[in-house]
Amino acid sequence: MIHPVDTLLSLVLLSVLFSFGTSRLPGLIKVVAFQGVVASMVPFFIGHDMSAGGVVFTVATLLIRGIIIPLCIYLAIKKVAIRREVEPIVGYHASILFGLGLIVGATYVSRQLNLPAISQYLLVTPTAVALLVTGMFFLIARRNAIAMVLGYIMMENGIYLVGTTFSSHVRHIVEFGILLDVLAGVMIMGIILQNINKTFDDVDTALLRTLKE
Amino acid sequence: MSQFFMAILIIVFGGFLALLLARQAKLMKLIAVFSLSAGCLLGVIDAGTKLMGSDIYTASFSFLRVFSLGFQMDGLSAFFLFAIFLVSLLATLYSFHYMDHAQKPLRVAANYFFFSLLIAAMALVVCSSNIITFMFSWEIMSLSSFFLVIYNYESAENRRAGYLYFVFSHVGAMFIFVAFGIVYGLTGSFDFTAMGSLTETAKYLVFIFSFIGFGSKAGVFPFHVWLPHAHPAAPSHISAVMSGVMIKTGIYGIIRVYSLLDFNTPVFGYIVLVAGVISGVLGVVYALGQQDLKRMLAYSSVENIGVILIGLGIGMVGVSEGNPLMAVLGFAGCFFHILNHSLFKSLLFMGAGMVLHKTGTRSIDALGGLLKNMKITGATFIIGSLAISGLPPFNGFVSEFFIYFGAFKGIALGKTAFVMCIFAIVGLAVIGGLALACFTRVIGVVFQGEPRTSAAVDVNEKGATMLISMLILAGACLIIGVFPGALIYMPMKAVSALGLAYGNIPLEPFYQMTGNITQSAMILFAVVLGVIALRSFFYRGKTIGKSGTWGCGFTQPTAKMQYTGSSYAGSILEFFSAAAPLTVEHSPISGRFPLKTDYKSRINDIAELHMGTLIVRPVLFFFDKLRWIQHGDIHLYIGYILLAIILLLFFI
Q1: Mutation for A interface: B634, B641, B652, most A CBs within 10 A
Q2: How close, in Å, is residue A205 to chain B by CA atoms?
């Protein structure tokens, strides 16, 4: 029988594939929000004993990761009415192909990593690795700065997934630390974005090239 | 140790308060000066009492659970602490009126904040007992003084000076890191005492690397290039502290490493001695050619660091040759000169600061006749100059006398040591003569004669705290020069803290020597008084006419007829032109009735010149080739990060 954790994670993997093919920012934001919600639900099913504090932590994570951050970004792009396209450097079809290859590669790599604590769930490490690399991919292969921020959030989702597999008490501290990291990161990026937008009237990061001395 | 930490705490707290109160300029200055000087006073008293006894105080705190911050205060530390707190105390007092003209209160507050950090860091440097603590304090010291150097950051010249200082202090720190890295790598311990257990080769390496690193802070030729740029850029009380005590932390580092290595090879002594003679002679030659008053003093610091190193070298040679009297004389001379130099150099910088404050120029040849209006500044500056030239009855004479005496003790030794001692004696003699020429030039041009430009006309010397600091320092110079016996115990305590193998320190000859110095100073005073009495006796009842200096019997003398500093130094500089090339720009005179002409001369520092061609240019060339890495594309930058992570994964 397929464990519910693996079901959830397969949804995450699907969202990864979907994100590679998304061309519009609102769509991408929805994908990331979905991914955040699903990834945050994993701890409920992973079989640790959930204390009251743990539940609160996990729900808070879900709220921030799945709702607050995507909502903020969504409102931000509505407000400044920046261009809605993710402006790829690598095309959509090539991206999807890369995504498929990535999932295969991630499965292979996680076999090598061989983390003992999570061997009963097949997909945790592959998904985490896939999310990390997807985030990196978005940072490198999308010119639109908002798409890059979303890539960063995906990366953090991947790190979060690795964190859920630790069964000790430290877990919540680590998770919350990561969450704070994300919040701070997104805020800083927001400020930078605003500055880029103000200077260039666009959030195309390729324009930053002109700043080179 | 608690009193010491209390002093540090008060000082740093004062700096923080200054930042908080930046809006109330008057109150801020008052509180900052009060708490900084209170902390320094406490520190001076603490160090002074600890120098009386010979106990070793230790303290340690755990830091980040990984390292421990260890402190130890022995005679050597206490000696340096005494100098640091004393000079800082007077510099703080001086700053109260010196900062009067400052228009921007926030900047003054920042200045006090970094000043307090600098004092605290210097004090912690000389008390550190492990590598982590030492480097920690060392970096705070370098960074806070960097911010002090760029106090007037509007001027491009000052920014350049600050940048140069930043680069030098960090390259120097890298060398120290290498030395300490060797220690840690071979012993696995951060503790200073681990240095003693190294192998011989490692000891050589550690000493040489730390000598370069500490030498660049101390201003040893050819690592002194930052010094003549940074010192003039900083406000004068900061220059006084930097030149008076901060560069001495470099000397402290050399001495501390030497004593910890506990390795009696004559090679170390020879290295230090030769470096000392070279920096001494070249420092004073460059000082002689400077047009800028504070720059001249900075080069003179290079010279005095040379004298200190000569003493240190004599001491080291004495230890390796097994001659306790020579060793103690050398070390005692070195320590005494450290204290003395910190007194008279800060006095001179304060005097230069007063001149700069009132006339607005640092150019020596633009001044003149200041003694008439600035009596106290002029008199104290002359005292400082006499002391720095090593003339009796001032303190510079005492320390140089010790070093000479140690060198003469070494003449009876074997071949190499004999040659080195003669080299040291000749070097010291040349340095002394040139220093005298250098300072007679400054006094003759700046304080005597007639004003050369309008900047030097109608000046005054107001600012009670500035005058008081200078008077105290001048008094200290005189008292140490006349009664060295009263303070001889201080350098002696520092020497005995080195823990070198010469058994009991023979104190008897020292008391005899200092007694002789006192006696001859008294005779000198008697002679001077006698000459003054005779003069007034012979001139009694005669009319004495007064006219402009350098008037030379002309009916229409002008200030431009005066002998200039450049021409005074010219003949000496010509002799040293191999080591100090002179650039002269002079538009030729033509025709029977020549029109305007000009003359500009600049002395070139060969270390700076060659640093430019041998180091800076190849480095720039190499890094220009790597410029494509910084292409401005953020996506590829992120790619670099990914690449770095993947590469690192292979090493895990």
Answers
A1: B634
A2: 7
Q: What is the pLDDT of residue A117?
A: 59
Give the phi and the psi of residue A88 in degrees, each rounded to 5: -75, 150
pTM for the whole structure: 0.81
Domain boundaries defined on chain B: 266-501, 606-651
Closest residue to A212, CB basis, from B631, B635, B638: B631
- Alpha carbon separation from B108 to B26, B90, B102, B104, B158 (Å, rounded): 11, 18, 7, 7, 17
- The maximal CA–CA distance of chain A, rounded, in angstroms, is 60
- Cα B633 to Cα A206: distance, rounded to the nearest angstrom: 6
Report phi then psi at B601, rounded to 5.
-130, 145
Q: Please write the tens of the pLDDT for every residue from B30-54.
A: 899 999 999 999 999 999 888 887 7
* pLDDT grade for B440, boundaries at 50, 70 and 90: very high
Q: What is the pLDDT of residues B136-192, one digit of tens each?
A: 999 999 999 999 999 888 889 899 999 999 999 999 999 999 999 999 999 888 888
Residues 6 or more apart in contact with residue A82 via CB below 8 angstroms: A146, A197, A202, A203
pLDDT attached to residue B504: 61
Q: Which chain A residues touch B629 with a CB distance below 8 Å?
A: none
Q: What is the DSSP string of B250-292?
A: HHHHHHHHHHHHT---HHHHHHHHHHHHHHHHHHHHHHHT-SB
Q: Tell me which H or E stretch contains B60.
A: strand B57-63
DSSP B563-622: PPHHHHHHHHHHHTTTTS-EEEEEPPP-SSS-----EEEEEPPHHHHHIIIIIIHHHHHH
- Tell me the pairing of strands B599-603 and B57-63: unpaired
Element containing residue B431 per DSSP (H, E): helix B415-442
In single-letter form, the type of residue at position A83 comes to R
B68: three-class secondary structure by DSSP? strand
- Token pair recorded at residue A207: 């324009």
Name the token pair of B522: 């008294």
Distance in angstroms (rounded) separating the CA atoms of residues B32 and B115? 10
Does A169 score more than 60 pLDDT? no
Is residue B308 within 8 Å of residue B334, measured between CB atoms? yes
Distance of residue A165 Cα from the nearest chain B Cα, in angstroms: 21
The Cα–Cα gap between B53 and A178 comes to 55
pLDDT band for B509, please (50, 70, 90 cuts).
Answer: confident
Q: What residues of B are in contact with residue A143 (Cβ under 8 Å)?
A: 635
Q: Measured between alpha carbons, how far is A38 from A45 in angstroms, rounded to an integer?
A: 11
pLDDT tens across B84-134, in order?
999 999 999 999 888 876 678 888 899 999 999 999 999 999 999 889 899
Which among A136, A139, A209 has CB closest to B632? A209
Average pLDDT for chain A = 80
**Alpha carbon distance B387, B478 (integer Å):** 8
B633-645 pLDDT per residue, tens: 777 888 888 888 8
Closest C-alpha to B596, from B588, B584, B604, B607? B588
Environment class of A193 (CB within 10 Å of its CB; exposed 0-12, middle 13-18, buried 19+): buried
